[in-house]
Amino acid sequence: MASQNLQSVPAELSPEEQEREAAGQAYFDRIISEDSRIEPRDWMPAAYRKTLLRQISQHAHSEIIGMQPEANWITRAPSLKRKSILMAKVQDEAGHGLYLYSAAETLGQSRDQMMEDLIAGKARYSSIFNYPTISWADMGAIGWLVDGAAICNQVPLCRASYGPYGRAMVRICKEESFHQRQGFEILLELSNGTAAQKQMAQDAVNRWYAPSLMMFGPPDDDSPNSKQSMAWNIKRFSNDELRSRFVGMMVEQVRVLGLTLPDKDIRFNEETKKWEHGPLDWNEFKEVLAGRGPCNSQRVERRREAHENGAWVREAAVAYARKQAQKENAA
Ligand code: FAQ
Asked: Gene3D superfamilies this protein is in (predicted)?
């Protein structure tokens, strides 16, 4: 397995340390080859820890920044029922962020540091959350397409080799399934409504389709991390493989919605047995990743404001914890 050759034991270590490192590497290689789980206190290669921290922290940031496009519509939801469903969904995303920050913390990075990186604009989060939500139908399109893509990408992550990440993903995926259903239902209702409502739903699907396909990451031949992450059983499938599966799922569901996908090149390739789609604008993707998407600066700015406005809550929680600890010590 590739992972077994990547970590050479550093020469400057003492013989005892070298022996410990070699034993740790052997244990790690066995766990990976048995498709079992690495836990926080287990020995792991520095590069494995680094790639997990990279992926999990980006994922956590995506959930937190991902609250903004939908939170933007809570006050404008068309009914009390829709408002409470949307509020619950946005709260779920906050919960997902917290599970994931906790999983990342087990790798030795503090949550404060991750948050500082995010609000300093130094951390990545999913490209998808840099697009604006301009109509109510966007709540449907986000639930159906964005949460749909998230599920497709994240169900295999439930089997990720790092225990805390895999376990967090199990709970997250259950909630994402509900999110996708609620998005589908919003679009279905609009699609069966007036001609203007149906058009609003179609317009939202047209705008969110390509960005949701790009959520799966760059094409495989331009994905520097995939090979190693797959060798370590973090990722189970390549970016293109998951993107193709997602297209296949959407093709079926869009028929039920009575809408269309804005891609005339979708087809099932009988030879490869894979769904194919039309070209995506990877320059746009790169621009968004470079911070030049439609909403990048607004998203980070709002997060910074929220963090600063929430300082008193954090201070109060610390003061309360201190007081409780003093009480317990005095008892
Ligand atoms: N956006 O070599 P690869 C959600 C970066 S949660 C931004 O292929 P990898 C729930 C990548 O980080 C959505 N950056 O990388 C929700 C790397 O940069 P780096 C988030 C992207 O890690 C719904 C570089 O490009 N989901 O939606 C993107 O092997 C509604 C090269 O790429 C996750 O994070 C992108 N789309 O594969 C919440 C799932 N794609 O770090 C609210 C977990 C790639 O070298 C509302 N993550 N990059 O500087 C993963 O599965 C993987 O990390 C991938 C990328 C597949 C995203």
From this structure: 1.20.1260.10
Question: Does position 236 have pLDDT exceeding 90, yes or no?
Answer: yes
Q: Which amino acid is at 41?
A: R
For residue 69, count CB atoms less than 10 angstroms from its CB and return exposed for 0-12, middle for 13-18, buried for 19 or more.
Answer: buried
Query: Is the overall model pTM greater than 0.90, yes or no?
Result: yes
Q: Residues 6 or more apart from 265 whose CB is under 8 A from it?
A: 276, 277, 278, 279
For a substitution probing ligand 1, which of 48, 57, 62, 86 has the most ligand atoms within 8 Å of its CB? 62
Going by pLDDT thresholds of 50, 70 and 90, the confidence category of residue 2 is: very low
226 neighbors 239 (Cβ within 8 angstroms): yes
φ and ψ at residue 38, rounded to 5 degrees = -90, 135
Q: How far is the CA of 329 from the centre of ligand 1 (A)?
A: 45
204 Cα: distance to centroid of ligand 1 (angstroms): 22
Alpha helices in 192-238 (DSSP H): 195-214, 226-231
Question: Taking residues 297-302, what's their average pLDDT?
Answer: 97
CA-CA distance, 237 to 277, in Å (whole number)? Answer: 18
Q: Taking residues 55-66, report their average pLDDT.
A: 98
Rg (the chain; Cα; Å): 22
Are 231 and 167 in contact, with CB atoms under 8 Å apart? no
Query: In this structure, what token pair is assigned to residue 95?
Result: 């919960």
Residue nearest atom 54 of ligand 1, based on CA coordinates: 217
In this prediction, residue 245 carries a pLDDT of 98
Candidate of 126, 155, 242, 303 to mutate for ligand 1, largest count of ligand atoms within 8 Å of Cβ: 126
Tokens 């068309």 label which residue?
78
